[in-house]
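This part of the workshop introduces the protein records we will be handling. An example says more than a description, so a record of this kind follows.
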Amino acid sequence: MNSRQQFLFKSDEMKELFLPHLSADPVIFGFDQNELKVLLLKMNYRKQWLLPGGYVRKDEDLDEAVVRILKERAGITGVYLEEFGVFGKKNRSELYFEDFDETLFHKQRFVTIGYYALCNPSRFRLIADEYSETCEWIYVSRLSGVDLAMDHREIIEKALLTLREKISYKPIGYNLLPEKFTLSELQKLYEVILGKELNRGNFYRKIMNLGILKKLDEQRKGGAHKAPDLYSFDKRKYMKALENGLNTW
């Protein structure tokens, strides 16, 4: 069955299972090799790249739908998801299916809810679904050369902007860094997300004032210079700061 036949075959079934006109598109960011990545699917149809989004079942909550969609489309589970925006421009999704007639479920007008998440890519074994040729982590810095379908570039850009705003009052790093890390590695994570360099002294002072780090009696070995101290997150204080926000940043 080719990619076109897949959509035609599933259309009537999807009309019974899913809500019309509502979808969800999660933007999953990962931090690897000191760079930010985003999870994308390359579709069998049109060979364009898309976010791992999908439709909402008639018998499930929206948040439940996003969790299910991520698992089904990419094999991603157990990530902290947060809603960040609504996208509803006219013909935002319909044009992608312009080769089909108006009865196709996928060609109806869909308003989509954007979610974002942060995770460590090494935690997951990506599994592409039946509609996708591949599922991959793509460097955000290289997205300009990627053929993104629909309005998914706009959704990614809004997610990144939201992430940059959020780290001024929410902690980050727990799901992105290894269990033990240096302050310079944590600073690099903030710089990559913010897209600018930070003063090392100011950053170290501010991050330590937050009280979410535990200094370990260990150093990072193997470098040519003095071995830097290793830290880990205090999970209880981190989760409290995630819930209540940061007052000293």
Remarks:
- The longest strand covers residues 18-32.
